[in-house]
Amino acid sequence: MTRIDFYLLSSDQPDTRLAYACRLAQKAWHKGHRVYLHCPDEAITRQVDDLLWSFRRDAFVPHVVLGEGPEEPVACGWADQPGSYNDLLINLSDQPPAFFSRFQRMAEIVIEHDPVRLPARDRFRLYRERGYPLNSHPIRTAG
């Protein structure tokens, strides 16, 4: 059964949420995991793609926009299917992806901004009602 972790950031800035997603993807990749960042649309996917190149000057995360090149350890996309990825899913969408249960772990990154926080509460309730193991991690952020 998929383990679901909610990362509760002490920020209301959407950019902080995306930067944290990149940091989480980098950490998981360093531990040998394959990561899929599920975005709500193409625009956010392109933003995450750019951030994965630049969120840290001393970091490199081998990644690809799903379907635009050979597979890499990290992929980002907005499609209905995550290709062959099934290790760690980082959900940046307002909805639980239909395919989330095929992943070993899923991360939900939440900021103190109602358009993000309120749908995340609904997803938390849905996952709890379905019996998924849930963990919450309060994270103090600078922005």
TrEMBL record:
Identify the species of origin. Halopseudomonas oceani
Top-level taxon of origin: Bacteria
Q: Which BP terms from GO are recorded?
A: DNA replication; positive regulation of DNA-templated DNA replication initiation
Q: What is this protein called?
A: DNA polymerase III subunit chi
> Can you name one GO molecular function term for this protein?
DNA binding
